UniProtKB/TrEMBL annotation:
Native source organism of the sequence: Primorskyibacter flagellatus
Family: Belongs to the amidase family. GatA subfamily.
Gene: gatA
Molecular function GO labels: ATP binding; glutaminyl-tRNA synthase (glutamine-hydrolyzing) activity; transferase activity
Coiled coil location: none
Residues at the active site: K52 (charge relay system), S132 (charge relay system), S156 (acyl-ester intermediate)
Domain Amidase, chain residue ranges per copy: 1-449
Protein name: Glutamyl-tRNA(Gln) amidotransferase subunit A
Keyword tags: ATP-binding, Ligase, Nucleotide-binding, Protein biosynthesis, Transferase
InterPro entries membership: Amidase (IPR000120), Amidase_CS (IPR020556), Amidase_dom (IPR023631), AS_sf (IPR036928), GatA (IPR004412)
The keyword Protein biosynthesis belongs to this UniProt entry's keyword annotation: yes
CC annotations in GO: glutamyl-tRNA(Gln) amidotransferase complex
EC number(s) from the headed UniProt entry: 6.3.5.7
Function: Allows the formation of correctly charged Gln-tRNA(Gln) through the transamidation of misacylated Glu-tRNA(Gln) in organisms which lack glutaminyl-tRNA synthetase. The reaction takes place in the presence of glutamine and ATP through an activated gamma-phospho-Glu-tRNA(Gln).
Length: 456
């Protein structure tokens, strides 16, 4: 813990930690020491972690990267962070993220963006750590903590993991409780760990997961010992390569990474099969209807009364002006865009044409996966991202759709509620890390982690 606190002090330029909690960390670390001495030391005992700013942490600022939650200190602890602390984990502070987890580069954060510790060769251009869990990825990659929590609604764990050479797993929807995590799109949101290795991911996920009566979508299932399932034996496993993920204009380095990954799994005894997921091309538009729709509803609660920021009002302003001014000041442009898109697709005249249509297509996307799993496929191998990390400002200056295209390989997994993991498997010509994604059957994170372990 002390070593991490020192490293964090020297790493302000990365912008990874946005609220530091050194006193709390030292207190938790001595409590962990006492547990170790008493012979009661669970796996996470004394492990220094960073917590994404989206998690409500008791008495510690929890702003979801937004100005509208300025000054908000929750009275309660999210279930996931609470389980980690009960198991002895130490919190070093809160980690940077895109505002309300909306973004793929951490550039929508109210704190300013986190930076990727990696550089392109000798080029000094600052690169994005990805988003929305960019602070988590940057902190783990730069050794500021041993592990971090992330959340993934449309790739926000897996894409930053791929951009920073770290491991990130989004578990099956319902595996981790969403209670106490600021909601973005409730039918897609899942928490998961970001770590250096697959083994660490297995250990941390085991502590984060589990049934919680406070989240009605949390699954009442036993959490297996994921670490014990890491045998490295994947003989006879059937790995599918979906043709629809071979996009036009895909960089040759990503294609090579993908082919090399398939070879590695084949060498380890797996069978590699071509498969088809025919509705893949509709995934991005479907996601960018459903996620903003749910977000517009979830974000209605930020009214200047119950939480955080309230605008200064002028003489004669009424409650409408209070809402308008507070929300105009408190939400950044990307969040405002999502709220507008969301309310539009949910409005009476357009509901059927957009929201209901998107829900139907979502069912078809889910069925594509069910069909290949029913045909015997154990896991699906794809690239995690269409490129390696891009420069800060490079995409944000283009139109927002350019940024949305970054999520092309990741959003299908959220729409289908499946577990997906990003594993670092190579580097591009400039030495930047690149990752592959493995998608597994529902509730089979153990198998998925074991396949990832063979790829690592
Ligand atoms: N980049 C996606 C978005 O902006 C994913 C975000 C996420 O997974 N939280 O919606």
């Amino acid at each position: 813990t002390q070593a991490c606190l020192t490293a964090i002090e020297g790493a302000d330029a990365l912008g990874a930690f946005v609220h530091k909690t050194p006193e709390l960390a030292l207190e938790q670390a001595s409590a962990a020491d006492a547990r170790i001495k008493a012979g009661d030391a669970p796996d996470m005992c004394g492990i220094p972690m960073g917590i994404k700013d989206l998690f409500c942490t008791k008495g510690v600022a929890s702003q979801a990267g937004s100005r509208i939650l300025e000054g908000f200190k929750p009275e309660y602890e999210s279930t996931v962070s609470g389980q980690l602390f009960d198991a002895g984990a130490v919190m070093l502070g809160k980690l940077n993220m895109d505002e309300f987890a909306m973004g793929s580069s951490n550039e929508t954060s109210c704190y300013g963006n986190a930076v990727n510790p990696w550089r392109r060769g000798n080029d000094d251009t600052a690169l994005t750590p990805g988003g929305s869990s960019g602070g988590s990825a940057s902190a783990v990659a730069a050794d500021l903590c041993l592990a971090a929590t992330g959340t993934d609604t449309g790739g926000s764990i897996r894409q930053p993991a791929a951009f920073t050479g770290t491991v990130g797993i989004k578990p099956t929807y319902g595996r981790c409780s969403r209670w106490g995590i600021v909601a973005f799109a409730s039918s897609l949101d899942q928490a998961g760990p970001m770590t250096k290795t697959v083994r660490d991911a297995a250990i941390v996920l085991g502590t984060m997961a589990g049934h919680d009566p406070k989240d009605s979508t949390s699954a009442d299932l036993q959490v297996p010992d994921f670490e014990a399932m890491l045998t490295g034996d994947i003989k006879g496993k059937k790995i599918g390569i979906p043709s629809e993920y071979r996009m036009d204009g895909m960089p040759s380095e990503i294609e090579k990474l993908w082919a090399d990954g398939a070879d590695m799994l084949r060498d380890a005894g797996a069978e590699i099969l071509d498969i088809s997921l025919p509705h893949t091309k509709y995934a991005l538009p479907t996601y960018y209807v459903i996620a903003p729709a749910e977000a517009s509803s979830n974000l209605a609660r930020y009214d200047g009364v119950r939480y955080g920021h309230r605008a200064t009002l002028a003489q004669g302003d009424g409650i409408t002006e209070m809402y308008e001014k507070t929300r105009a000041e408190g939400f950044g442009p990307e969040v405002q865009r999502r709220v507008m898109v969301g309310t539009y697709v949910l409005s009476a005249g357009f509901y059927d044409a957009y929201y209901n249509r998107a829900r139907k297509v979502r069912t078809l996307i889910k069925k594509d996966f069910e069909d290949v799993f029913a045909a015997g496929i154990d896991a699906i191998l794809t690239p995690a991202t269409p490129s390696s990390a891009f420069g800060l400002g490079e995409m944000a200056e283009a139109d927002p759709v350019q940024m949305y295209l970054n999520d092309v390989f990741t959003v299908t997994v959220n729409l289908a509620g499946l577990p997906g993991i990003s594993v670092p498997t190579g580097q591009d010509k400039q030495g930047l890390p690149m990752g592959l994604q493995l998608i597994g059957r529902p509730w089979e994170e153990g198998d998925l982690l074991n396949t990832a372990y063979a790829l690592e």
